[in-house]
Amino acid sequence: MSLAKLSESRLKGPLPGNPACPACPHNIGLKILGMVLGDKAVVVVPAGCTSIISGVWPTAGIDLPILHVPFASAGAVASGLKAAYQVHGEDAIVVVWSGDGGAADIGFATLSGAAIRNEDIIVIVSDNEAYMNTGVQASGTTPWKALTTTSPIKGKSEERKDIAMIMLMHKIPYVATASIGYPLDFRDKLLRASKISGFRFIHLHSPCPPGWRFEGGKTVEIAKLAVETGAWILWEYIDGNIEISRPSIKYSDKAYRKPVKEYLKHQGRYRNLSDDDIRYIEERIDENWRNIGIFMETLKSGRMT
Question: How would you label 42-74 residue by residue, b for 16+ Cβ within 10 Å and e otherwise?
């Protein structure tokens, strides 16, 4: 087909599919977002993978109203957008759909500001743990020792940023973690969040095949292994209480967890790990479980308000 005929065919209607990488986790999350919120959702997308996935006019890969914004502005734009809908008496649910760079790093200032003001928006961070759209550069949520193009020799030397816990410290009404490996858990959390007013935050774990260097058919398997090894803890904060979510409950007992090596060995970004590195990662997982247990007890005792 000539270029002119191809352009003409594109103008007649959208092409099927979207430009996401094969087995992209964002597609799973976006489908659930559309299923739960439907026509009420208006999505603010800072720069990232979803800027590409959504397609280029006049075609579209996502059947939701989308406003594309610069990296650092999503929290502020979403706040203003929600205020405009309220002035006009329209019951829209404004959602920021962000990657880790647009939330934990470049976009954190406006995100934090919106949280402090308790703006009536939902923020979903679909975290693939690096700047995948621009070449797999390390971000604040990239785990220790993971290989990226900006930490190519021995892997990232810094620990990852726990953005969900940071947002919890803003004392907002709702915070949760989720995983594309457990879509029903994510669905239920998004549904509950949609019925609460104020600032709501969901941290969605989204393994990336090209960035993490694993086979595309393993996206969901890798996501589940993160939970089954205890490396990703599913929890939910609502009404002043924090609870471990059902898929993660039994893994609070270390005896039920799979060895973390089962999670790491499928990912090329961890190919340089030594046995000592793996033991250290396991120790940090244990520490995370202890910390969340202490936090739960603190909330229940009323020592934190």
Answer: bbbbbbbbbbbbbbeeebebbebebeebebbbb
